[in-house]
Amino acid sequence: MPPQIEQSPRPEWSPLPGDGVVGVTGKVLVREWGFFIAMLRFEPDAHINEHPGINDTVVICIEGEGWTSVAGERAQLRAGETVRWPKDVSHHLWTEGTTMTTLMFERVAGAAEAAPA
């Protein structure tokens, strides 16, 4: 069977859409049934406003450093570190004078329970 090669859903860096997003670009690498993978680049003093997520999310800082908060608790996030955001809990991601690149993985709510056999 030959390898199945597919184009990424949004392979080029483009401004992240949404209210309250400043200085963040992203690419969507995978959008499949049950999960979503994206890369985000933060300029110095960039941010995504605090909001609750509709899915469980894992964010891995792969370059640079920035900040995150989960349910109002703030922590620095550095290259090689991972933060988990539970579904329906407010979270925030930003930089303060630094740059940061992250890899984001979302598990779509209910996908594991409803996965095809």
Could you explain how this protein is built, in words?
The protein contains no helices and 8 strands. By secondary structure, it is mostly beta strands. The chain has one domain (21-107): Jelly Rolls (Sandwich), CATH 2.60.120.10. A hairpin with a 2-residue loop joins strand 4 and strand 5.
Provide the helix percentage.
under 10%
Spans where pLDDT lies below 50 across 5 or more residues: none
Q: Total helix count?
A: 0
The number of domains: 1
CATH topology (level 3) name = Jelly Rolls
Record keyword descriptors for this entry.
mainly beta, Jelly Rolls, globular
In short:
By secondary structure, the protein is an all-beta fold. It is 0% helix and 63% strand.
Map the helices and strands.
Elements: E1 10-15, E2 21-32, E3 35-52, E4 56-70, E5 73-78, E6 82-85, E7 90-94, E8 100-107
Antiparallel strand pairs: 1-2, 2-3, 3-7, 3-8, 4-5, 4-6, 4-7, 4-8
